[in-house]
Amino acid sequence: MSERREKVAFIGLGNMGEPMARTLLKAGYELSVVPHRRSGPAERLKKEGADAAPSAREAARGARFVVTMVPDLPEVEEAAFGEEGFAQGDPSGLILLNMSTVLPSGIVELAERLGKRGIGVVDAPVSGGPTRAEEGTLTIMASGERATYDETLPLLEAMGRRIFYLGEVGKSQVAKLCNNALGAMIMLANSEVLTLGVKAGLDAETLREVITESSGANFILDKWLPQNVLKGSYEAGFALELMYKDIGLARELAREERATLLLGNLAHELYGMFDKEGTREKDYSVVSTLYQNAAGIGIAGGQSTR
Q: Within the chain, which residue ranges are assigned CATH 3.40.50.720?
């Protein structure tokens, strides 16, 4: 392990947050985490050297950085301004590194509120999934005051392989929402053509290999679908409820900017059909079953489902 570095409070230990926090531990940071819905992640990290704090305020005590990796802006606001939030007391000198995906205008407003309490903000949503989070090879989009960003850069480098500095707070969220909206649309397109090809008699893996070497190649088809759709399993990955939320944020951004998001609007409606108990926690590729069920065929194995 490298030489011990500054203290970091990490809030949000979900499928992405836990491995991201672990990479900071491995990089030598003193880490304090806050248990939330499930105690397991905090307990595992505690065994690896982290401290577990009862609240965001306690976790941030003596820390230089607070990292948030929670579902949306209300959870970030609660971590900051709740009764036991890190912005309570004397938070001057803290830097919030928000790695959650939120509406750009929302994080701009939050940064202004935190700035009045002496807290700097760097906004840094990520892309890459749990495996790359564990490896510390995420793609990270960062924005904020340049000097504050420079202070957080060692943390970002511990968690990511490609780091893009995009300017003022909020710009990184624009990039993330564009990326996720596109990913949601591409998942639907992949599902549509794989279902068609299998229905017409092709093996799904063979068709995938052909397309990945042709003009239809895309990252999701190449790297993501072999883990779920081609296995007929949707239990792990990026939760559909989060993708549905992110497309909704992209739609809201489009309304604010008076931009057209025709395919994004359609994608949001289709993902919304699956945002229900028992399905929303599954990987967002479960949306492919819409096409498979309609065609009466399973992409994995090519068997009729009728």
A: 7-167
d(CA 288, CA 17): 26
User: According to CATH, where is 1.10.1040.10 located in the chain?
Assistant: 173-295
- Condensed to tens digits (0 to 9), the pLDDT of residues 28-84 reads 999 999 987 778 999 999 999 999 999 999 999 999 999 999 999 999 999 999 999
- Sorted by sequence, the CB contacts under 8 Å of residue 24 that are 6+ apart come out as 8, 10, 31, 67, 155, 158, 159
Is position 223 annotated as part of the catalytic site?
A: no
Asked if 54 and 83 count as a contact pair (C-beta separation under 8 A), the reply is no
Architecture in CATH of 7-167: 3-Layer(aba) Sandwich (3.40)
Which CATH number is associated with domain 173-295? 1.10.1040.10
CA angle 274, 276, 280 (to 5 degrees): 70
Which spans in 48-92 are helix H? 56-60, 73-81
What pTM does this model have? Answer: 0.94
Residue-wise pLDDT tens digits, 179-200: 999 999 999 999 999 999 999 9
Catalytic residue among 171, 176, 245, 282: 176
